[in-house]
Amino acid sequence: MDVLERIAAAKRAEVAAEMRGLSMRRAIELASAAPATHPFASALASGAAPAIIAEIGGRVGRDAAVAADELARRFEEAGAAALSILTDERFLEGSPGDLKAARAASVLPILRKDFLIEEYQIYRSRALGADALLLIARLVPPRLLGTLIGVARSMHMEALVEVRDAADLDRAVASGADLLLLNARGGAGGEPPIETAIRLAGMAPAGSTRVSSGAAESAADLARLHAAGYQAALLGERLMRETDPAEALRRLRGTETS
C-alpha cells in the first residue's frame, strides 16, 4: 500500500467514526447555518503579485509562543492575501481547532488543508469556517473529484486542486477545476523546484488560477513565479521554519519592519 492509499484508508475510518457522532444530515445543517464565506480566488487577484497564502500548522500547538490565532493576525498584518490551515492531526500535525481559532482572529479567506475524500468532509469544512479547501487530484478517482468540487461550490466554497504532473493536471481540468495548486516538490530527475514550477505553469490551461507550492525560497523566486503566470504562492515550510514567520513574510515582500 503506497502512502496515499494508506492516508485514504485512515481518512475513511476517521470519517466513519465522526459520522457515528454527527450524522450527515446534521453536518449539512451546520454547514448551511455557517456565516458567509470570504471570497478566496478574488483575494488572490488583489494586492501585490503574486499573492501569498501563508500556512499555519505543524509547529502550531506544540509551540505555545506561536498560537494559531496570533499567527493569523500577524500574517494578515504582514500582507498575506489568504491563510492555509493544516487540520489533519495524524499526518500533518495540524488541528481543526487551529482553523476555528484563525477564523475568529482574521478576516482573510481560509483554505482548509487536509486529505478530503468524502462529501461529508466538505460540509464539516464549511461548518469549521473554511472558505476554500484543498483537493488532491491523485487521491480520489476523477468522478469523485468532480463531485467534491461541485459540493464545495454548492456550499459557496472554492476548491484548490493540487497537481504534481501532467496526468494530475488532465484529471483536475476534466473534473472542472479552475483553481490549481501546482506542487513543485520532487521534480523529475532532481529538477530544481523553481524550474519544475515554471514548467508546470506552462501546462496549465489559459484562464486557470495558478498557485505555486514548494518553489519559492526568495523574493527573486516569487518574481520568477509571477512572470511565469502564477497569481499566488502558498508558503508553508518556507515560513514555518523561521523563528518569526510573519517577519519572514515581510522580508520576502521587502516590507520589513524597522
Structural topology:
Elements: H1 3-21, H2 24-32, H3 41-44, E1 51-56, H4 68-77, E2 82-86, H5 96-105, E3 110-113, H6 119-128, E4 132-136, H7 142-154, E5 158-163, H8 166-174, E6 179-183, H9 193-203, E7 209-213, H10 219-227, E8 232-235, H11 237-240, H12 245-253
Parallel strand pairs: 1-2, 1-8, 2-3, 3-4, 4-5, 5-6, 6-7, 7-8
Helix pairs in contact: 2-6, 4-5, 6-7
Task: Summarize the structure in words.
By secondary structure, the protein is of the alpha/beta class. The chain has a single domain, classed as Alpha-Beta Barrel (TIM Barrel). It is about 45% helix and about 15% strand. Helix 2 (about 25-30) packs parallel to helix 6, helix 4 crosses helix 5 (about 95-105) and helix 6 packs parallel to helix 7. The longest helix has 19 residues, at about 5-20. The radius of gyration is 17 Å and the shape is globular. The model has no long low-confidence stretch (mean pLDDT about 90).
| CATH architecture assignment name | Alpha-Beta Barrel
Provide the low-confidence segments as ranges: none
Number of helices: 12
CATH homologous group name: Aldolase class I
Spatial ordering of strands, largest sheet: 1-2-3-4-5-6-7-8
CATH fold type: TIM Barrel
Please indicate the count of domains. Answer: 1
Secondary-structure element string: HHHEHEHEHEHEHEHEHEHH
The average pLDDT is 91
Structural class: alpha/beta
Just give the CATH class: Alpha Beta
- Mind telling me the C-alpha Rg? 17 Å
Largest sheet: 8 strands, parallel, barrel
Strand content: 15-25%
Helix share bin: 40-55%
